[in-house]
């Protein structure tokens, strides 16, 4: 019984740490605010359009991909700053590559978002205008 209690206690600590990391990113990363606003906007538009379950899956995969890349990039930047407080060309490469990963995820997600939401959005706006 004590092992079960310890298991749940450590899971609670793990979740607390994960939420602390989440709030750190949202609180300190300017681009995270852009991702947050885009996430909210895309979800609201998706509800408004009554998209299909498969389309929801694509939207949430894209949202998750961008957030995942942002979180990994933030972690990478923190580790690079810790390992190399002074400027170093390889530290710059690490940070730039991490930022590029976020950019690639955001571009791919934007393209998928336009492909998934574009046609029903154009149709719905067309109906509203007529």
The pLDDT mean sits at 96
Q: Major β-sheet, in short? A: none
SSE run: HHHH
Beta percentage is: under 5%
CATH architecture: Orthogonal Bundle
Number of domains: 1
Unreliable stretches covering 5 or more consecutive residues = none
Question: What's the total helix number?
Answer: 4
What is the terminal-to-terminal distance? 66 Å
The helix content is over 70%
Description:
With 130 residues, this protein is mainly alpha-helical. It has a single domain, classed as Helix Hairpins (Orthogonal Bundle), CATH 1.10.287. Helix content is 92%, strand content 0%. It has four helices and no strands. It has helices spanning 2-28, 30-49, 53-83, 89-129. Helix 1 crosses helix 2 (30-49), helix 2 (30-49) packs antiparallel against helix 3 (53-83) and helix 2 (30-49) packs parallel to helix 4. The longest helix is centred in the C-terminal third of the chain and has 41 residues, at 89-129. It is flat, with a radius of gyration of 19 Å. The model has no long low-confidence stretch (mean pLDDT 96).
């Amino acid at each position: 019984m004590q092992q079960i209690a310890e298991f749940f206690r450590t899971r609670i600590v793990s979740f607390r740490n994960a939420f602390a990391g989440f709030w750190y990113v949202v609180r300190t990363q300017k681009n995270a605010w852009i991702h947050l606003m885009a996430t909210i906007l895309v979800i609201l538009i998706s509800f408004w359009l009554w998209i299909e379950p498969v389309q929801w899956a694509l939207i949430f995969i894209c949202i998750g991909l961008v957030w995942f890349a942002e979180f990994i990039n933030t972690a990478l930047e923190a580790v690079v700053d810790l390992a190399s407080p002074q400027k170093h060309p390889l530290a710059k490469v690490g940070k730039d590559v991490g930022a590029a990963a976020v950019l690639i995820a955001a571009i791919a997600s934007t393209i998928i978002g336009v492909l998934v939401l574009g046609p029903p959005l154009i149709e719905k706006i067309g109906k509203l205008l007529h």
